[in-house]
Amino acid sequence: MRANSIDGIGMTSRRTRQRLVDRLREKGISNPRVLQAIADTPRHLFVDEALASRAYEDAALPIGYQQTISQPFVVASMTQTLIEDVDKHTRVLEIGTGCGYQTMVLSRLVNLVYSIERIGALQVRARDRLYDLKVRNVYLKHGDGFAGWPENGPYSGILLTAAPTEVPEALYEQLTVGGAMVLPEGNRTKQRLVTIKRTTEGFERFEGPWVNFVPMVSGKI
After folding, report:
1. Alpha-carbon distance 14 to 53, whole Å?
2. DSSP of 108-163, one letter per residue?
3. Is 219 contained in some domain?
């Protein structure tokens, strides 16, 4: 991949990317590592070429198969919440690889990322893009996110990019004591950002703002 395609030009340039980072900071994203990860991740390479000029808008965009790349503020907010309780030298499980953008952001902040995607074509596309970008600390799986990835757990952090109606039971068991899980939870019309923290005494739940994600679906295609 040529350097100028990573850096971008015009509406996909590093200057445009920095303006997005500035907007995120104004909206309350304060963790400097998260802001730097957003600045260093070329979002325009994770969307269709026809949408590249909109890549650094703070908006969700379609990626095909009735899925979306999440709004940058939501990516940054969920990531910031997750790493508050996750040491950077650790492993994180992502449910819903999608186009791989959130995956790459996480890869810049933690030691290992394990990511599951139920739609095979999206998983292949994300794998190829991450390989081209020389991301080497990510492991991808085509599978059902409701089951998690137990053979590589437990995980210090779990992040879901699609909304289940309730937290999948299997994911509780794959979270380490002291770890955190961040996810949107709810039905198709009403979802809330939730953080689950595992302590020596059980699980603590914290509810955040209302959000809008695609629903989490079982099985794989």
Report:
1. 13
2. TTSSEEEEEES-HHHHHHHHHHHHHTT--SEEEEES-GGG--GGG--EEEEEESSB
3. no
Question: Annotated catalytic, 218?
Answer: no
Integer angstrom CA distances of residue 206 from 180, 181, 184, 198: 11, 10, 12, 12
Q: Which stretches of the chain are DSSP H helices?
A: 3-7, 14-26, 32-40, 72-83, 101-107, 120-132, 169-173
CATH number for position 109: 3.40.50.150
Catalytic residue among 30, 70, 107, 156: 70
Q: CA 85 from chain center: how many Å?
A: 16
Q: How far apart are CA 157 and CA 25, in angstroms?
A: 23
Percentage with pLDDT > 70 across the chain: 92
pLDDT in tens, 29-83: 999 999 999 999 999 999 998 999 899 999 999 999 889 999 999 999 999 999 9
Residue 215 is classified by DSSP as B
The parent domain of residue 149 ranges over 3-211
Q: Give CA–CA dist 120/141, Å, rounded.
A: 9
